Structures are given as C-alpha cells and as structure tokens.
C-alpha cells in the first residue's frame, strides 16, 4: 500500500493563521518535512508547527536547500529529495511537506511534485492550502484588494520597468512577492511610473507576529528584516 504526500501550507508566519485541516494533517503524518534555504537562519514553517504541536520535533526532518544560483546542485537536490520521499511513499508512510503560506503559490513544493511525477507513475498527493501573505497583508491594511470586475496580477520580484508598466495599465491591483529582490530598481520604476503614492510596502515581523508598514524613506534607510510584500492599488 502506498503512502501519501501532503503539501501543507502553514500560512504567513502568524501561528494563529494556520488552518485546522493543516494542523490535523501535520498531527496525523508519520514524517513532517520542512525546507530551509541555506542562507536563512530561521525555518518559519517549523516555527508555526511547533507552536501548536510540541511533539512534532520527534518526527520532523529539515531539508536544507542549496543556494539557487548553483543550477546543477539545485536540480540534483530536488531529484535526490524526490527519491527519498518516493521511498517513504512506497513503504506506506504519510509524509507532510510543510511550507510557508501556500503550497501552490510561488512554492518550492512544485519542484518536488515535478520530480516525483518523473519518478512515479501515480503520485499520491493531497494539497492543504494555506493563507497567503498578500491576503493577510491586505487584511492588515483593512482595504479591499479587488472588487467586482477588477483584475489582480500576482508577480514575483524583480519586475522589469516594461512589465510593471504593462501590468499597471492592464490590472487594477498588483501584488509583488519578494519585493526586496533588487528593491532599488523597483523603487526607481515605481517613481518613473508615478505609482509610489499608490503603493503599500509591508514586512511581516516574526518577532511581533504582525505586519509592519514601511514608507519609501524607511526602505532606503534601513535593512529589511523579513520578506517585503508590495501591494499596488491603481485607484
């Protein structure tokens, strides 16, 4: 009998913003896997999990992802990880692969699924959605992101000047993840397109378990701690 792989979203970092279903799956799983980039000191998904499930440490395995710039190493990493999980599944193990936010939105979980589908004919997978960063962020701002027939584009930084120009004309709201990636260029492009006054800059503070709203001056003066979320409302 095959096991099953769960892709589990743990939300944006606030322990209270993980779903009941995610907690149930994590509690029932035989093994919980989380991923941490080798450049990161903190594993945000694990922090949320252990807040609720103290015993999770006994079945937790942390996978350390090599820096993405090394393409050959990066692909080998996912192939090897997929084969390890394949072994678990063939032994009938229930594996929960827990990720920050949501497993299907700019998530490394997609790499794993691609590799597993290359190794197995029928991959037993279930996705447990998580609350994404921009939904939590707009809740903090107390603004509607889009309404009725308005259009939303979700992008990942860096975004070129031409793309930012095109998307700002075609959509009513833009969300840019990982806004700290080439932030200086993004700020310059926002200025050129007269979008600064329509832009919100948010960082989720893990220490305070809440969002911090930053201004353009803040971004230019201090180092950003956490992932920068950029939300642009055209009107």
Structure description:
The protein is α/β, with parallel strands linked by helices. The protein is 36% helix and 24% strand. It has 2 domains: 125 residues, Tetrapyrrole methylase, N-terminal domain (Cobalt-precorrin-4 Transmethylase, domain 1); 101 residues, 2-Layer Sandwich (Methyltransferase, Cobalt-precorrin-4 Transmethylase, Domain 2). Strand 6, helix 6 and strand 7 form a beta-alpha-beta unit. Helix 3 crosses helix 4. The longest helix has 20 residues. The chain starts with a strand and ends with a strand. The mean pLDDT is 90.
Total of DSSP H or I helical runs spanning 4+ residues: 8
Please tell me what the overall shape is. Answer: elongated
| Helix proportion range | 25-40%
CA-based gyration radius = 19 Å
CATH class call of the largest domain:
Alpha Beta
- Give start-end ranges of low-pLDDT stretches: none
Going by CATH, what is the homologous superfamily of the largest domain? Tetrapyrrole methylase, N-terminal domain
| Count of DSSP strands | 10
**How many individual domains?**
2
Strand residue percentage: 15-25%
Keywords, please?
36% helix; Methyltransferase, Cobalt-precorrin-4 Transmethylase, Domain 2; 235 residues; alpha/beta; Cobalt-precorrin-4 Transmethylase, domain 1; five-stranded parallel β-sheet; single chain; five-stranded mixed β-sheet
